[in-house]
Amino acid sequence: MADAEASGVLGLLDRLSAGPVICAEGYLFELERSGYVAAGPYVPEAVLDHPDAVIQLHRDFLRAGSDVMLAFTYYAHREKLRLIGKEGALEELNRTAIRLAREVAREGEALVAGNVCNSNIFVDGEAESARRVRAMFDEQVGWAVDEGVDFIVAETISYVSEALLALEAIKEAGLPAVINLAIFRDPLTREGLTPAQACKRLEDAGADVVGLNCARGPATMLPLLGEIREAVSCHVAALPVAYRTSEDEPTFLSLSDSECACIPEERPFPTALDPFTCNRYEIAEFTKDARALGVNYLGVCCGAAPHHIRSMAEALGRQPPASRYSPDMTRHAYLGTVDEIPAANRSFARYL
Ligand SMILES: [Zn+2]
Question: Please, which residues bridge with residue 70 across strands?
């Protein structure tokens, strides 16, 4: 029995029927910035080497209002572990990640989600590659089921045929499936389907939630969401990266920075994206806009930090535990407006 069900906490589909669900993501990027994950390989070794760092980030996201603790198994798959010569740690890494997520989920009423992603070895139309990718999904899904997750997220997949393999693995395991596609510069899957066509195909194959995550920021993901919402009748997900993307540079991989001459290879992705980071108010605006379109599974992917998630929760009218420390500029030393702020400081504000 899944963990939430066993403890009487509402499951994913019941929660989605009742209102929006928030799933904080972006663990790889946030833990890279704090020094526990290497950019490039992006293997979540921190689960085994620095579990306290992973637990703390789960806890920060829980306090900020995330309804889901997403197990940090992104890229904890056979191909990535092989790349760093640690295939032997695969099962332990997957099982431990889920236990860490569950430990924190129990501190609130959060759900625990397993996580699978793009295999990086999928070749469209090649049966042998499909067989290998399916086996990778099966083993990760199997460990997740065994550890009692509530549902499984398959994400950042840009071939719908690869996403379908993940979906089959999840449905055969009997769990709700959230399937999120990553859409790069051309607003199409790598087979050439529109996101709406791809999501419809996933819904027809049994996905419970379909949508988009990663690659695009709020500004360039939003225009794709309405078409998806119209094409499907199941729940719709949107988890943009927390970066300012534009029509000319619609993905965080394509961003350029003319203000800085010292970026390696002149590509801000992935380690010099700081000046493009969305502020909390932009995430709140995205949340309201996506809700207005009918999106009900919401989150932020790469670049997300806890303040983004709190802003998302507050935009949905919630007051998560971290709202205890939401801004109160009325008490700022110079910009404050309450009587206790000395008048001399308030009048000095124009010289700041
Ligand atoms: Zn991402």
Answer: 113
